[in-house]
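My current task is to audit a protein record that another person submitted. I have pasted the whole thing underneath without changing anything:
***
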Amino acid sequence: MFDKDTWIEILQVILRNPLRAILSGIGVGWGVFMIMITLASAKGLENGVKADMANRATNSMFMWSMQTSMPYKGFQQGRRFEILNEDVEHLRRNVNEVELVSPRVQLGGYQGANNVIYKNKSGAFNVYGDTPDYIKIEPIIIDQGRYLNELDMSEERKICVIGERVNTVLFGKESALGKYIQIQGVSFRVVGVYKSIKTGEDAEEDTQSIYVPLSTFQKAFNYGNVVGWLSILLKEDYPTQVSVDQVLATLKARKSVHPDDPRAFGYWTMAEEMEEIDTVFGGLSIVAFIFGGLALLAGIIGITNIMLVTVKERTKEFGVRRALGARSGLIIRQVMTETVFMTLIFGCLGIMFGVGVLWALNEFVLGEASGSFRDPSIAYLTAIFILIIMIVMGALAGLLPALIAVQIKPVEALRTE
């Protein structure tokens, strides 16, 4: 579109004041760099959160009883009730949308750590009563021994599976398999040691737990037939909300709860959690793009100001061109090309710098185990989109100086010193 002489002239104009060109271009490069870093940081947070949840079944549901908010069948509002073993069996028999139900209970209630003893060593750990099906909902890696099985449940065996962190604190380098630990004065034989599928600090926290057969747990710690909450795997053949509604309706009917009571049961599903995560991080990406865009806009304004100064300095040059018959369109195109060229050069440098920083961050700082912040990056299409925006903004930045340049009358321009 432009001949060789035109590009030589553009380079001459830029190189005439290299320091000024560099200082104005740095603003553009910094703006592009900020867009990349903020978007990549948002993506890194999203990757970390999703990685921690990735190994959970996407069709899982977790449910617990709360307090009624509506009177029903002679019962007053505010009634508290428990989920029992019999309710679990009722769900399994009567809800076709449910693939499996794994009741769970925690010693000491939610986030209740308990003192666990082995010989002269002790530690505070979470103790859960579980069924063999629970590993299908939240998988773990059995590093030594085995997990819970149906015989453990039916025979109410006093056995347990301990986390890697529990093993380190209580046993050190000694093998834990076959040894006995004490939980609230009750002895349990260790039959397995598990690792977390998570990484970093999340993995260490995840392995500070002990799993005991639910039937043994309820008997040993006098829980009767009470269940803390339900971990449910829904069939993938049905829409998630349809399955959830059916589970709620079945339990409400069984526990004499008003069908429209919104507070009797608390629950959440993995599908809803993933949707919320996508929504939150989608919004975060938009905010990151806006703030990065503002930084880029500041750089573009800087280039606009520089081009206005350049046009002022070249008043006589433009006057001569106009006097020799140069058209307005040619002048406009010349100024806008110079602006777009500067924007593009420094914008590309900003992209290259951003890519380098992200590579170094992943290679030397984060590594593989980076907790809830992993693999900060941006997609190629996003980088191309940033490039297009940069070119458009560069063209707009050159429009005002270009229009001012063509408004200069040739006679007045020739008089300018």
Q: What stands out?
A: The chain has two domains: 4-53+275-415, 111-224. The longest strand covers residues 121-130.
